[in-house]
Amino acid sequence: MTFFLMKEEDSNIELEEKRQFRRIPVNIDVTYHFNDIFYSGTVLNISENGLFLSTRKSLPLNSLFVVIINAEKKLLKLIGRVKRSIKNNGYGDGVAIALFEPPGEYKMFVKDLKKTTGPQLA
């Protein structure tokens, strides 16, 4: 089990430079499939090409898995790769996920979220 911890000031600079899209703060319950087992988690922020998944299940860095979002009577199935893992003693534990070729329906879902949410995160 590997966790990566960064100082907040270091991680903010690095992430701002790498991030293509602004994150939208959300609270969306999801199901994800890893190693033939389904788990539950909560998406805490989302963008056109990634998301942060709060979960107590530790996922290995660079592992691939499927995230399923129940969006307005449609199931959005997304393939993601773990880019970063965070462990904060129960609060904010989770993984940063880069999505592979997000489908158009997902991009529309994110676009609609942008219209209905407040300020976006850097």
Query: Taking strands numbered 1, 2, ... along the chain, how are they ordered across the largest sheet?
Result: 1-2-3-6-5-4
Q: If you average the pLDDT, what whole number results?
A: 81
Domain count: the total is 1
Q: Give the number of DSSP strands.
A: 6
The gross shape turns out to be globular
Instruction: Give a short account of the largest sheet.
Output: 6 strands, antiparallel, barrel
Strand content: over 45%
Low-pLDDT parts are 1-17
Question: What string gives the helices and strands in order?
Answer: HEEEEEEH
Task: Give me the secondary-structure category.
Answer: alpha+beta
Number of helices: 2
The name of the CATH superfamily reads: predicted glycosyltransferase like domains
Radius of gyration: 14 Å
- Please identify the top-level CATH class: Mainly Beta
Structure report:
By secondary structure, the chain is α+β, with helices and mostly antiparallel strands. The chain has helices at 8-18, 104-116, and strands at 24-34, 37-47, 50-54, 64-71, 74-86, 94-100. The chain has one domain (8-116): predicted glycosyltransferase like domains (Thrombin, subunit H, Beta Barrel). Strands 1-2-3-6-5-4 form a six-stranded antiparallel beta barrel.
Outline of this structure?
With 122 residues, the chain is of the alpha+beta class. The chain has one domain (8-116): predicted glycosyltransferase like domains (Thrombin, subunit H). The protein has helices at 8-18, 104-116, and strands at residues 24-34, 37-47, 50-54, 64-71, 74-86, 94-100.
